[in-house]
Amino acid sequence: MVVHYMANSDSIRVDFICPQNAGRSQMAAAFAERERADRELERVVEVHSSGTRPAESVHDEVVEAMAEVDIDVSDRSPTYVVPEALETSHFVITMGCTVAEFNPEHYGVESREWNLTNPDGEDMETVREVRDEIETRVGALFDEIEEIATGRTESQSLPQRVSDTISDIFK
């Protein structure tokens, strides 16, 4: 049984972090955004991506590999991790960097390490393998997130669920 530590928030925040924020974390965020939309969780899940030493731009081979699956990451810009922002995260997923310096347990944040090859400078076959593995892992993560989101809805009182439903209808 997996125990989920949840930071206090109305939404579920997921942070993908890698050193340069130009490959793995960008792919993960893009797949997470697609999963969020496909599962109609836009109002429930926040997706963030950052790096400990951001590159100037997303790696060309990553842009190309993601374009092959109809996801455009060419306009994204690598950004720095803001440790204080992680306090409100529910899942911190690292790929090639340590999260220990942020002490996620102190904030009640679940952290996971996805040890994946850095696609920077790799041949396209390797980049595709990394991309496909990230897509699989993000899908599994969203299976968990969907259960959490469903549990939140079910744990609301009947009047709150009715009120939320009426509000949704008139938006």
Summarize the structure.
With 171 residues, the protein is an alpha/beta fold. The chain has helices spanning 24-38, 60-67, 83-86, 124-155, 158-169, and strands at 12-18, 45-51, 91-94, 110-113.
Descriptive report:
One of its GO terms (biological process) is response to arsenic-containing substance. InterPro entries: Ptyr_pPase (IPR023485), Ptyr_pPase_sf (IPR036196). This protein is α/β, with parallel strands linked by helices. The protein has a single domain (12-169), classed as Response regulator (Rossmann fold, 3-Layer(aba) Sandwich). The protein has helices at 24-38, 60-67, 83-86, 124-155, 158-169, and strands spanning 12-18, 45-51, 91-94, 110-113. Strands 2-1-3-4 form a four-stranded parallel sheet, with helices on one face. α1 links the parallel β1 and β2. α1 packs across α4 (124-155) and α2 packs across α4 (124-155). The radius of gyration is 17 Å and the shape is globular.
